Amino acid sequence: MPAHQLAPDIPPDAPDGAPTDVLASEQAHLAESRAALKAMRAHAQSLSADAAGDWVSQQILQSLLDQRVAALADHPDTPLFFGRLDRAGGDDLPGTIYVGRRHVHDGGSKPLVIDWRAPVSRAFYQASPADPMGVVRRRRFGYHGGALTAFEDEPLGEGGEIGPSKILTEEIERPRTGPMRDIVATIQPDQDEIVRATLAQTVCVQGAPGTGKTAVGLHRAAYLLFTHRERLARSGVMIVGPNRAFLSYISSVLPALGEVKVDQTTVAGLLGEHAAPEDPLVAAVKGDARMAPVLESALWLHIVKPEDGLVFTKGAYRHRVADYEVREIVASLRGTTRYNPGRAALAQRLAHMVLVRMEQRGESPDDRVQDAVARSKPVKQLVDAVWPKLTPEQVLFRLLSDPDFLGRAVKAAKSDLSPEEQELLIWRKPYRSWKSAKWSAADAALLDELGDLMERTPSLGHLVVDEAQDLSEMQLRALGRRCRNGSATVLGDLAQGTTPWSTTSWESVLRHLGQREGEVTELTLGFRVPREVLDYAARLLPSIAPALAAPRSLRPGLGSLTVSKGGSVARAAGEALAKEGSIGVIVPDALVDEVSRALAELPHAVLDPDAAQEHRLLIVPATLAKGLEYDHVIVVEPADIVAAEPRGLARLYVVLTRAVTSLTVLHDKALPAQLTA
Ligand SMILES: Nc1ncnc2c1ncn2[C@@H]1O[C@H](COP(=O)(O)OP(=O)(O)OP(=O)(O)O)[C@@H](O)[C@H]1O
User: Taking every annotated instance into account, which residue ranges of this chain make up the domain UvrD-like helicase ATP-binding (predicted)?
Assistant: First the structure.
């Protein structure tokens, strides 16, 4: 008997009845589950918020009920369940379990579908003949639209071999159109290990292009939200991706899994959309973690040694705090609090001293008097003079425009920033004031660091960081602040690092993120790029990431690669349009307009950095291709892509690994030597 049976292709010899009967019975279970979901929704709709006592509680309850009703919507095109486990029994759980996107139960609370994230569903992803996990048979379902049309059985109890799943193969061979889809029906065992890692655990995933890192990160977010619903509803989960076009591409995955309350943003979205152009050499120094102690010193250098004491007049009395006492208070606070709470504490401590004086004179002031004194003019004046009110922008402005001040900060921090590096940091053309300064992306991380030195940044419960290899140490520190009381999922590929500060080690990434305990793991099997294309792109690996092993692909994709000298982009695009699926024409950024003119006869759009367009034929600037995929990819002039930036070869590697079905490389100039070797 074959290990897999795919109805209706397989002759009706299955032990538990002919496939068509089985199919009919599974279709009946789907119909019953749909009806039950409808009833659950009707029940939720019938609940009234009137029971809540006051108006505010009613509003909150109504909003919760509305969310519940929305969550119970049946999307006819989305399979309600995609798997079934027949279990050996011996526990309290049902013998047969249907695994799907959400729980569905009948009127008597009998489970008809169990959420894929429930502990019992784990076996659907992990059970194997070697370790059946109490499962006798795993059944996978194939759908066409919303209709259940096929099933595939894997007997697990007999210790045999399981061949490749046709349903998985069909899913990954499916022509791509539109945004990214969830992979909940076909998560692979090594991916599932990452998805179900505990909330306390920070996981860092190195993976070649198309190994499912993004998909895994999104599913892990959904898993954690299900497993720790209340805790994470309070603290929050956030996904950080490389650009907004990418976010738009992945935006429907979590909602399809029922999770709508996850913030998806970019580093710029989080730290501020500052984008003043900057020399990469300068940005590299600014991105270096050695900036952190320099910023800290720069901030604290603003504290002025108190020369005068405080005189507080009340009625006929003058209460004095001596200069040395003020110095003692400042010294005791310095370095023990963040900057802004330190200011407030200084005012309170001074006020306290005044109160002590009042008491010594026989008065009995209470706490309100202390607050009033802390807010009084003489105290405010002294605090402003000694511990001035500052913004991150003011401090950074001073640091980047005043070489002496920078030198003092470097010295105070005992930093080894060299004179050359310090010179790079100083603006060539200084701005008139911090208000008119134009900040760069690298400055945004410095401002954020200063902001945290002044006021603690709140931490989220969990952070998913995609394309993490591209982040500078200072950006990682900024993200680390946002998960310091939580954990992170860090995803990336050392070979796809395209920034001048791209990392070469995940241990270093975890260290700067403040998650040293994080575990580095690897995904090695590619689900996107055909083998022939991946092997071609992998010729670049010895030059860009020599320590990495060549990636492997699940998809043979014979005939998927065409390399053509002098070929026409319009012809290649026209040929791709005659096939099924999306088409990405990936071009050096400088050639976007030229290629758009060459394609004037064909309906097309240019990918906008701020949004993913729904267009079959898209021109994609090479610098925006990261994380995206297209059924057919046409890459124009690799030599120019390489020449455009310092890590141009890595950019080319990214660009060559976006194809799902075919890659056409068009070139007039000589190809990079690594590709022809
Ligand atoms: N288990 C799976 N079942 C079906 N499809 C999968 C599976 N894992 C990944 N895929 C598909 O493979 C493609 C690549 O996945 P994804 O974008 O997550 O990879 P990646 O590792 O982030 O790639 P890159 O490094 O190039 O950004 C996607 O279309 C995704 O849906």
Answer: 186-530
